[in-house]
Amino acid sequence: MVEYIFYALSVICIACALLVVFSKNPIHSVLYLILAFFAIAGHYVLLNAQFLAVVHIIVYAGAIMVLFLFVIMLLNLNAETEPHKNMLTKIMATVSGGLLLVTLVGSFRAAGQVEMVNLDNSNIGTIENLGKVLFNDFLLPFEISSVLFLSAMIGAVILGKKQLS
Amino acid sequence: MKSIVLLSLLGVTSMFAGVFNYRKLILPIILIGIAAAIGLFVDQWGMNKSFYQMAFFDNYAIAFSCLLLSVSFLIFTLALYHYRKEGDIVTDLYALFIFALTGGLLMTSFSNLVMLFLGIEILSIPLYVLAGSRRADLASNEAALKYFLMGAFATGFLLFGIALVYGASGTFDLAGIAAYVKAGKDIPDFFYVGIVLLIVALLFKVSAAPFHFWAPDVYQGSPVLVTTFMSTVVKIAAFAAFLRLFNYCFTPLASYYEIILTAAAVATLLIGNVTALYQQSVKRMLAYSGISHAGYLLIALVVMGASATSVVFFYSAAYAAASLVAFAVLTAVMENKEGRESFETFKGLAKNNPILALCMSVAMLSLAGIPPLAGFFGKYFLFATAIKDGYLWLVLVAIFNSLISLYYYLRVIINMYSSADDEVPAFTPNYALVLMLLLSLGANLALGFYPDLLMGLLG
């Protein structure tokens, strides 16, 4: 059963990812990307990482993709305004992408079979366990990340504030 | 840890300065706060305190933290001069500087890869904004965007590297990873890939070749105070993190990645020095000079070992002391000449303001490594350690590059002591600038005449 779901999700995910690249309309690309994110979230659920799945949907499919859509709509991007790329660029992009693929395939073949690690605790990804780890072992990074968010907020205010001259 | 909390609170205080109207007071408060943070660190010397196995304040961390704090102290003194005419946005900028500094302190004291990541991000994100803080200036905007995009890419590499290292060793803890490497039983190939990705990310942060392309544009476009911060605090923090991580965890595998670091060091030296030769802007020249100094420090990383830590510490202190003087003089000159920064701008400085010209000369000679200034001893200790460990050819490359660098450092001095084409307005002396120049010049000379002050500190 789980295996069938895995393959179904994988097919959806890869198909959507391809459609993201190939669709002419940028809005469609974004919508397909949201579908791909949902498929990946399904994989997380299969791995018993519910928290990650939920956060993935909220953050990526929710927040970031909405931002994407806003930007695309504000800039009014569509097939006509897309800058036309010449043949040379296309060839170079294909060659470099192909080289990257060859490198990746080669290194994966060379790496050989990776032994699966059997986790002692199959509930490791549940919210309860994650909370325990976050507030015990990783308490200090958790608290310190507040400095990170605070500085990001101040930064946004500085850049967005009306210029007084 | 107390000083990290203190600094975070200081940042918040600075943030509220605009709201509660104590803008005039904020810089003195910041300076006192940073001095107090140094005091708190010195108090912890030799106690090796660990916090939740996340941060470990050994002597290495304390020494580098104090160096970062002292450099920031001088930068804030310069801010007293540089921002004296600006409006209310400045207190927010100070808050960002302080938060970035907090990130730098975390990068020197992490004992867990999660903390390394957080430290690098807390250092970088305020800087992306600071680089673009002169919003009406196109170059500043370009700098911010370039830095942000490139930095986000580097963060991706860092995370990927951390993930692969975690995947192989099963732990984020430095001690755990070190034990895993030492045991050395069937380490999978992707662990090495992880190390290489970590090297890529950290080379980016120290602006070493071939990941240096962002540095000149970002350094030139940013406001000069931010450039000062980037070329001193950020660079030192990144090197401290680099050395801490690799010295602690990966030394048994040095034979695998040594070749990468050596190639990066040689490329950084050559590219930095040769490109600096034909720059027209002093600010950009200083950016390339910063790149080439990253090359010298990379040699210390190749050599590694316990002796490398004290060499890196001394070298970064000497480099920072000289850079601070150079940037302070540059700030003063640019302000007097409406933001121009070419070599010609420095013409007639010696006649107009001999003290400023003298300070700049000392800084340039120290950066070039002329005895008896601090920069000379930095290079001397570095080369001596490298030769002792059998890297003679690397030292020869470095010496060759020092000779090249003499050209562009002396070019500034020659320009200063030749007569100006047009009439130059007289400088108005400012106590903050004088204080800052005195302190950093003092550090330059003190490190030159008594190098043992810092050299023996880390054993």
List the helices and strands and how they pair.
The complex is a heterodimer of chains A (165) and B (459).
Chain A lengths: L1 H21 L3 H21 L3 H26 L11 H25 L15 H10 L2 H22 L5
Helix pairs in contact in A: 1-2, 2-3
Chain B lengths: L1 H19 L2 H21 L5 E3 L3 E3 L1 H24 L7 H20 L3 H19 L6 H32 L4 H10 L5 H17 L8 H8 L2 H27 L3 H24 L4 H22 L1 H32 L12 H4 L1 H15 L5 H15 L3 H25 L14 H19 L2 H4 L4
Antiparallel strand pairs in B: 1-2
Q: Can you walk me through this structure?
A:
The complex is a heterodimer of chains A (165) and B (459). Chain A is extended and about 55 Å long. Helix content of chain A is 76%, strand content 0%. Chain A is built from six helices and no strands. The mean pLDDT of chain A is 83. Chain A is mostly helical and 165 residues long. Chain A has a domain at 1-78: Four Helix Bundle (Hemerythrin (Met), subunit A) (Up-down Bundle). With 459 residues, chain B is mainly α. Chain B has one domain (2-455). Chain B has 19 helices and two strands. Chain B has helices at 2-20, 23-43, 59-82, 90-109, 113-131, 138-169, 174-183, 189-205, 214-221, 224-250, 254-277, 282-303, 305-336, 349-352, 354-368, 374-388, 392-416, 431-449, 452-455; strands spanning 49-51, 55-57. Chain B has a two-stranded antiparallel ribbon with strand order 1-2. The longest helix of chain B has 32 residues, at 138-169. The two termini of chain B are 23 Å apart. Classes of the chains: A mainly alpha (165), B mainly alpha (459). Chain A binds chain B through residues 107, 110-112, 114, 117, 137-141, 144-145, 147-148, 150-152, 154-155, 157-159, 161, 163-165, and chain B through 4, 8, 11-12, 15, 51-55, 87-89, 92-93, 95-96, 99-100, 102-103, 106, 112, 114-115, 118, 121-122, 125-126, 128-129, 132-133, 135-136, 170, 188-190, 193.
